[in-house]
Amino acid sequence: MAEESSDRESLLRREYLQQTARIHWHELQTYYAHGSVIAVSARLNLVEVAVQLGMDNTELFQRWIADGDVGGVTDEQALLWYEDNPLLWAVVAAPWVLVQQRDEPVAADSEA
Fold first, then answer.
1. Is residue 27 part of a domain?
2. What radius of gyration, in Å, describes the C-alpha atoms of the chain?
3. What is the extent of the structural domain holding 67?
């Protein structure tokens, strides 16, 4: 069972890493309007957050939410991003779109 979980985690990590890309905030407006956009702190690895979401790691997500590292995009943040239209890192972990504002590339081996 542990091996199956590890295999699934590895598969998700590869898939999400391949799907991670930069996108302008304006292109995410429809997803934001549907409440599907989740902001991820630059302190976390975006791909790892997507993997843990895919693995349904509730305990870790509760900690990230409590620490303010993961959460829905606030109206205030959305307005700032709308005005600036930044290029954000994003990955789809259906039904969610995880976004992160950072200047450096997302590294596969960064710690979460």
1. yes
2. 14
3. 2-100
